[in-house]
Structure formats: C-alpha cells, structure tokens
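S.,

As promised, the 7,8-dihydro-7,7-dimethyl-6-hydroxypterin run. Input:
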Amino acid sequence: MIEVYIGLGSNLENPAEKIQQARLFIAEHANMSELKFSSLYSSPPMGPKDQPDYVNAVMSIQTALSAIDLLRVLQGIENDFGRDRDVIRWGARTLDLDILLYGDQQIDLPELKVPHIGLAERAFVLYPLQEIANESLFVPGKGSINDLVVQCPLDGLEKLS
Ligand code: ROI
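Predicted complex:
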C-alpha cells in the first residue's frame, strides 16, 4: 500500500459541495481508502483573474493502485463531474483532482509528474497539505513541508469555517 496525497480544487457551481462529493467518490472507491482530509480553503485564482475564487483541499489516501492507474481513476471522477478538458488553459474548472505525492516517489511521465508541478509554490496546496501531513513530510526534490510553507506567502488563502 502506498500513501498518496491528492489536491482537490473547484471554482464552479457550488465548489465546496463539489469537493465534498469528490471526497466521497474517492473514499468509497473500492481501491482507495481515505486517511485524512484537510479543511476547505478559499483562494483567489492563480492564472487568469476573470474567474471565481477556488475552493481547495488536500486529502491523503492509501491505495494499491499504480500511479498511472490512480491517475485514470481520478480523471474518470473529474469527467463524472463534467469537466471539459483544455477549453481554456488555466481557466475555471468544475473539479480538479491532482496527484500531489505518491509515496516518496518521483515520477516523470509525459502525462504525470510527481511531485505535482508547482506544488512547492502554491499556497492552496502547501497549507492544506501541511495541515494533514506528518511534520516530517519531505517533498521529494523540493524540501520539508515546513520549510516550503515558511517560504510560501498565503496569497489570499483563507481557511473556510
Ligand atoms: N487557482 C487556485 N487558487 N486554486 C486552484 O485549484 C487552481 N487550479 C488551477 C489553476 C487554474 C492553475 N488555478 C488555480 O488549475
């Protein structure tokens, strides 16, 4: 079994509810079990500003799925939520599920980079990740979670309730 961190993001059509629904899809999936789930956070859009704020969260799961099989499952869930792929680069999305960390592995495939690209610079990923991660979590090739958070401004990130 591998411990995996997944980033969840949405900024369309009741995003907080979308995130909670996606959480259930993942937790109830036969090949994944939930370990931890962060608070929900709101964050201004990174990328084009003419889109609504995002709701973001991070969850950890245990799975026996390979990273690629996990990617396929998560893409299937995104599609179930009606995401149109690649309409506008970095435009609004109903649901985004990203593999942030896959155990301590570094993966460099055309369709999958782990740790997730940009993880180390994105407040909406780092802060919820730190909330649920062990203090000693190390992001392969990047540094300790605590160091990364200290170096990352909040950028308007706010914890929701
Ligand atoms: N911006 C924020 N704040 N949160 C996201 O989840 C997010 N996801 C994206 C882009 C468009 C890069 N911007 C984002 O894919």
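The beta strands are 2-10, 32-37, 41-43, 54-63, 96-102, 107-109, 112-114, 138-139, 143-144, 158-159. The chain has a mean pLDDT of 93.

- D.
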